[in-house]
């Protein structure tokens, strides 16, 4: 086993164990949360939305979802990452939203 492979495998396991807050886990995303994310994203293609929903909500494999909905895997990956960034940003922003009891 090459050293590079060992390093990449170690980094991947570290990323799984210490996820960035707000990271979307395939098959574990709430349907309503997904719909809200898609609404504030720039994803307008219905086929792409359906493919993303299959992966994020239902846990389908990326390749299968892309084939089913006729979208390219490379374009899917870009939009998947976009939703990850939006979700992670929302979590980071949350602390700055004032409570009703706080005055601005």
TrEMBL record:
Xref: InterPro entries: Adhesin_operon_reg_prot, Fimbrial_Adhesin_Reg
Keywords noted in UniProt: Transcription, Transcription regulation
Protein name, per record: Adhesin biosynthesis transcription regulatory family protein
Species, as recorded: Citrobacter meridianamericanus
